[in-house]
UniProtKB/TrEMBL annotation:
<keyword id="KW-0433">Leucine-rich repeat</keyword>
<dbReference type="InterPro" id="IPR055414">
    <property type="entry name" value="LRR_R13L4/SHOC2-like"/>
</dbReference>
<dbReference type="InterPro" id="IPR032675">
    <property type="entry name" value="LRR_dom_sf"/>
</dbReference>
<keyword id="KW-0677">Repeat</keyword>
<dbReference type="Pfam" id="PF23598">
    <property type="entry name" value="LRR_14"/>
</dbReference>
<protein>
    <recommendedName>
        <fullName>Disease resistance R13L4/SHOC-2-like LRR domain-containing protein</fullName>
    </recommendedName>
</protein>
<feature type="domain" description="Disease resistance R13L4/SHOC-2-like LRR">
    <location>
        <begin position="180"/>
        <end position="256"/>
    </location>
</feature>
<dbReference type="InterPro" id="IPR050216">
    <property type="entry name" value="LRR_domain-containing"/>
</dbReference>
Amino acid sequence: MSNEGEPMVAVAFHTDPRGTAYELLIDELIEKTDRFMLVDRKYAEEATPERVTTVLRRLDPYLIESSTMEEMMMKSGAMYSEGIYYIYRCTPESGQILKEEANRFHDWLYPSMPDDLCFLNEDGSDYFYTVAHENMYGMHITQEEAIELMERITGLFFRLDRHQDIHCLLDDAIRHQTDVLNISSHYLKEIPERIRELKPLKRLTIFEQDVYRLPPALFELTSLEELEIMTADLEGIHQDIGKLKQLRELRIYCGSSYHVPTGWKPKEKSDLGLKHIPAEIGELSELVTLDIGYSGICALPPELEKLKKLRYLSVTDGLIEGTPDMVKRMSWLQSVNLNSTPLGISWEGISDEAEF
């Protein structure tokens, strides 16, 4: 039940619950609501994928109704995307099927599975929503209800107002062993070493303009697949980057700011700490994307040529002149951008866009 006086809002998750947390939340949602919805996207004229058909067939005994996109819009006045929308009864049996067919909410992703598992209020609005392609998950509940759920179910990691305090954010992230974390706009000068306790972390974003050094603890997160760093200046990429063997995407943007004091402007590129890419980059055998924006980098290391899975190479607004012969030999690259200018975009414009 909601708490009187506290607003009911969409409280988003940092990441979708998985494993036991997913199963316990399914039980909770089956108990709290009487309907859930799945979508067959019906891409083009292709037949419905076999797995989608199998899951829909299993759920058929619990079907209340199905509607086209146009019918859904006529009923609610809201916008819907293309597909057939199936509404099912919430029962322990239908909930069991949802638990058997998936391990987390991101599994409900077309065409592998029916799309976007949602649980509905009596008026048809979302109580729990999923937008799997956008990695968006959340519930229309109060902050207090979200906290209560987090206390009962380990693995639920909501985005809460209290997470404006970095220590509260890390407390909850560590307790729930999240695999996704965004550290942004905390006015930090250093990233706490406790980050090493997040061993399952797969995706980490840090947007802290006054952070100059990355802690050694960060390079202990050997499950990381995506790492994005935005800051005003970075002393460099530590050689321990080579420890992150699972890394698929590495993005670093200097000259970044989320609060711009009067007269602030980025350092000159030649004055930035980030001047080279270490040879250890060649140890990241899973790397698909390397994207570095605004730096003092003037050359690429020869070890880059070892990265046979690299497809997207972007080192822009730096000090590289021309295209190195090594890059020309990397025929497996699908996209290369080594432009040394910001393509006519003013730093004022970039700073404005960076404020969220």
